[in-house]
Amino acid sequence: MQPLFRALTGVLAAGALAAGVLAAGTSAPAVETKDVGSPVGNATSPDAIDWKPCAQDAAAECGTLRLPVDWTRPSGETFDLAVARRKATDPDRRVGVLVVNPGGPGDSGVDFAVRRATSHFSADTQAKFDIVGFDPRGVGGSQPVKCSTELLNRRPSAYPRNQAEFDQLAEYNRSLREDCRQHTGPVFDHADTLSVVRDMDSLRRSLGEKKINYFGHSYGTLIGQQYAEEYGDRIRAMALTANVDHSLGAREFITSSAATAEDSFHQFVKWCKSTSSCTLHGRDITAVWDGLLARADQGEIRDPENPDQTLTANDITLFAFKAFYGPDWNELATYLAKLDAQERQAPRLTGGGPPQPRTSQAARQQTTAEPFHAVFCQDWNLRPKNYRQYAALTEAEFQAAPHMRGTPRVHAAVAGCIGWPEKVNNPQHRLHITDAPKILMLHSLHDPANNYAWATNIHRQTRETTVLLPYEGAGHSVYGRSDCTRDAVDDYLAELNLPGPGSRCAPAAQK
Asked: Where is the composition biased (Polar residues) (predicted)?
């Protein structure tokens, strides 16, 4: 596995938001798809998937399913949904299909099924289920959202200082949105999760299954929640980890996100103080951290792997935030110690940014896959209308996370929707599940990205249909944390056995 330091340096240097914002993950290589535009013959009877061995691993099968771009016009334009499957390794014990989504928005279910499922799920779960992953519309091989690379590289700061800079950010977002729409096609306007849910039910029918089992992580839990609302009677079992609360308003969303990032910082400090192997053990870690951010504000911290570049405070907090996902506390401590050891030097002027390089027409036509905001901005109505509203949100965010200076994840997400149309395809609402079996939810108490309060709030909204199992440790992923978490999911999926009232999973030993 690539070290965290090397994996994130490029992201930090660019000051960009990672594609897997609500779930740490990687984008899959695009799967070749057919051109969109041909009508669907009968949207109620989807075609069978023409399975063939996957190019990356012949033990898995890959295929596509043609579906409507706009489910309100089922005979209109179409796109190809990319799908992958690993059949149950013990057919005699097969229970059914396990549809999976690893999160994002922007992570690839095809990549998960082909490359990651065998190391993620237990051998017993692999024996009993066909593991099926799909790329949500706009992602990976499913008509991916693409935008001009040159325009993406000109993204302005997500921290405007006045109304004029707020207006510039809004204008940039409008230009980028139109650019992405032109490069992507009509699926761009229908990349919301509710459309994905309808795609998933068509996938169920194409697989010939009356009921499916589903495993969703992070943003994949929103797919699961809304599938349970729309098609609850078509679920046999559903396990959701690191849950997303889709009922929150802008202030609640951004402050709760900041608070859980700050909590993860304090968990890191607590670990380092009590662990002799921590590089910063015996020092005032909080003072070291605050000092680094102050020096970064002055342009005094260089990127260790690219000394010609300086790191901003936001770069450093983003690195730490991603480290909390693991959590990779040892590597974070080593990284911070390396930055702190840099000799003090004259700061570099950073105001205004470098002049934009001239690019050829060919370079301007190059595109990059960028699905995040196409999904997020159609799922969340979080549109500050002016600088005053945005500044109030930012102030509340910073108050909730004074050491992390808010949350780089959600701050950049909200900033990217400024200037978008007010209409949202799939706006927030309280969950209303009436016809579904018991759903198992797992969530870390110290999740850096998705606040544990999100899980408890969802559970309150759906108390008759959900069971919440807390994991008392840190980190974003939950399933593989311990025998307790893994066995709870495996036993539920296979036998529909749920944890008893008051059950909890103790934290695993943290290195």
From this structure: 358-367
Coil, helix or strand for 337? Answer: helix
**Where do the domains of the chain lie?**
11-142+193-247+432-438
Contact (Cβ atoms closer than 8 angstroms) between residue 183 and residue 204: no
3-state SS, 493-504, equals: HHHCCCCCCCCC
CB 112 within 8 A of CB 217: no
Apex 403 CA angle, 401 and 404, nearest 5: 65
Q: Report the predicted TM-score, pTM, of the whole model to 2 decimal places.
A: 0.88
Tens digit of pLDDT for each residue in 99-135? 999 999 999 999 999 999 999 999 999 999 999 999 9
Percentage above 90 pLDDT, the chain: 84
CB atoms within 10 A of CB 181: 16
Query: CATH number of the domain at 11-142+193-247+432-438, out of 3.40.50.12270, 3.20.20.140, 3.50.50.60, 3.30.470.30?
Result: 3.40.50.12270
Q: What is the C-alpha to C-alpha distance for residues 163 and 222, in angstroms, rounded to an integer?
A: 34
User: Taking the CB of residue 288, how many other CB atoms lie within 10 A of it?
Assistant: 17
Q: How does strand 96-101 pair with strand 61-68?
A: unpaired
Q: Report which secondary-structure segment, H or E, holds 85.
A: strand 78-86
Tens digits of residue pLDDT in 453-472: 999 999 999 999 999 999 99
Phi, psi of 239 (to 5 degrees): -115, 130
Per-residue tokens: 239: 């396990």
